[in-house]
Sequence to fold (504 residues):
Amino acid sequence: MAASIRELLERISAVDDPTEELRCLKTALLSLPVSAVRDAASGQRLSAVFSLLAANKREQVQLCVDILERILMALSPECLLRDYRAQLQAGLGHPSEDVKVLALTQIGRIMGHPDAGADVLNNHALLRAVIHCIREEKMGVAKEAIRSLSQLGGSKPGLDALFQSDLLGALKDVMTTSDVIRYRVYQLVVDVSSVSPVALGYCANSGLIAQLLGELTGDDILVRATAVEMMTALAQEQHGRRYLAQQGVMDQISNMIRGAETDPFSSLYLPGLVKFFGNLAIIESPQQVCETYPAFQNKVFEMALDPDPAMTGVALDTLGLLGSTVEGKQVLQKTGERFTSVLVRMSQLSSSGATELRVRSLDAISQLLSLQPEEQTEDLLALTESWFHLLAPQPMEMMSSISSQPFPELHCGALRIFTAIAAQPWGQRLMVSTPSFMEFVLDRSTGRTKEAKDAKFDLVGALVSSPTAAHILGSQHYVRLKTYLREGRYHVSAVAAVGTEGAD
Fold:
């Protein structure tokens, strides 16, 4: 096979129309594992394939991209830098989006390599060309440029090149193109800042983070909303959160939540503010965040009762996120009637209305009710049981009804709630005492889709793995559940065909 690839590479440069040879080469390369491609391409010059990128023939260019992608990914970054630096740099100026993405992907591999990347840092023309790709109309090109440049955040020489040379001016120049492009550069800055405290320091000293923070109070509502998303991304890292706290960003966002009451356009950015604190609560501490920024918790409850589906959906997601932890459950329980009214609203939403909101409500309820075995204290089991019974006078019947509706998303959502309570003794007692429920669990025909089969298998697995299930469910049910688990997710029972005398 290696010989045939060499022959095809030679033939490509010897014919006037190499389309058929390119097709054969692509097929041959795709049939080989990466290691074999590396061996077959070793020592081969790809100049003929690169030269064909200049042709104004769409199929030919696409074939060349597919071939080069397969071969170049098999080569080391050092090899790419040594043999194809000029071709890759030229690819950044190609009119085809696919060629640009190919070149940027390989350049990103070089930048991420400790030795090869060091050589690239001296080639400011190449780095400037990558920076200019951020303002390309095609988002795929811009994303790959951002991903490649983000590699520079992993080393001091890379940070020096990006933020302490003329390249910083190139970045700032690109930012002036439009609001959209400015935020692409902010995305790069946040990605680099997230790498380490040192990288964050470089970004802060460049003035670009201060500029981003300033967007939070800008007049453009959509720009403000995007700035909050950037802050949420930066807050994923501990050093990012520390920096934002030092800059007063948490207090600022809390004040924005309070001020949203009088802003007629707040619905455009309020979901982002709530998501910011929701993520912060899970990373840090639900209790600490809710106590320090009470406006956040109050707004989540208000949004859960809001008739606007956009507000309600974000509130459901946030409540599910908070309630997925023991501390979050305790924080919500402390609010008393306020959370009770929200839980009733979640039950109503899961039973009727738009499918998307129903699914999000079911998912939030399953997170609220879930308890890992090591979390199952007497108080917490009593808490989740009381929440489940707040959903409806007969919550098992309600969830069974939802699971039987002809919508796979709702069926799986209800199954996830059953899975959440399946690991808890009170849930098992409800299941075994509900008529026909165990038959429903063991019936493989109730869900036809892969997702439904996976959800049912997870439910069975939760029951079997519980130390109390055998005693509560009884040995007959427990043995059948273990058999279901042993047979696997997608088991299909064989149906015997019985012939009768005299049949046609």
